[in-house]
Amino acid sequence: MLDPERVAINQATTRTQWDFRESVEGYARHGVRGVGVWRDAIENYGMGEAKRLLADNGMAVTGLNRAGPLVGLDEAARRAALDDARRAIDQAAELSAACLPVLPGSLPPKSKDLNAVRMQYREALAELLPPAREAGVTLALEPLHPMLAADRSCMNTMADANDLCDALGPGVGIIVDVHHVWWDSRLEAEIKRAGKDRLVGFHVSDWLVPTRDLVFDRGMMGDGIIDLPQIRRWAEDAGYEGPVEVEIFSQLDWWTRDPDAVVEVCLERCRSVV
């Protein structure tokens, strides 16, 4: 059974119902002590107030979402994206975030050269690594489902992420988001390859059949077809001991419900299903 102390909730799970303060206080009210924070959520509060709210509620930041997208841009936009990513590194350091996910982006208009944008992503990460290492921030690679390869992410498998880690060296890690990687026949082997040193996050939701939206129709754990205990076991066998973070984008369902009830269901499903 999953230790309830390991359960974290990403603010995306209640993004339409609660703002930053409400989510931090709401999760804490239910005994949750880990939160995945979104940068835009703290804008109305400022960094000082955000840190106070987190500290007052005993909340640790599992990840600061996010830097990027970094590719598929013209030169001016690319430089602006890298500058913003450096600001995100500074923010992640100030919040003592466990990691900073870095969204790649993908093909620019009229392009079909996926290999070129993958190389651009590697180059962008290499440029960001020195300031990240200096700040003590881990850049998190999060493979996204191939259905998003054309417009959101040119990195789509755990093997892609492991290859980038091999190439870039210390300072990068991998988030295993089950919604994006459950289908991969090499998933167990690539989680093992990543190992304890690279695995910096484990995100849970479920894959619904049918899925009505490519991004905003994730299911609550247990409502879909992902073998969540098996994938968690693979991660733990590889040495992962960190938070199990609920991250549900659900425009048609869970974002329409009472947020306290959503958190209660998240916690119950983490106990009974994950």
Describe the SSE topology.
Elements: E1 7-10, H1 20-29, E2 34-38, H2 39-42, H3 46-56, E3 60-65, H4 75-94, E4 100-101, H5 114-135, E5 139-141, H6 158-168, E6 172-177, H7 178-181, H8 187-198, E7 199-204, H9 228-237, E8 244-246, H10 259-272
Parallel strand pairs: 1-2, 1-8, 2-3, 4-5, 5-6, 6-7, 7-8
Discrete helix count: 10
Assembly classification? single chain
Can you identify the CATH superfamily?
Answer: Divalent-metal-dependent TIM barrel enzymes
The general outline is globular
* CATH architecture call: Alpha-Beta Barrel
Structural class: alpha/beta
> Regarding CATH, which class?
Alpha Beta
Keywords:
274 residues, TIM Barrel, alpha/beta, 8-stranded parallel beta sheet
Describe this structure in words.
By secondary structure, this protein is α/β, with parallel strands linked by helices. The protein has a single domain (4-272), classed as Alpha-Beta Barrel (TIM Barrel). The protein is 43% helix and 13% strand. The chain is built from ten helices and eight strands. α1 links the parallel β1 (7-10) and β2 (34-38). The longest helix has 22 residues, at 114-135.
Summed up:
This protein is α/β, with parallel strands linked by helices. The chain has helices spanning 20-29, 39-42, 46-56, 75-94, 114-135, 158-168, 178-181, 187-198, 228-237, 259-272, and strands at 7-10, 34-38, 60-65, 100-101, 139-141, 172-177, 199-204, 244-246. Helix 4 (75-94) runs parallel beside helix 5 (114-135), helix 6 (158-168) runs parallel beside helix 8 (187-198) and helix 8 (187-198) crosses helix 9.
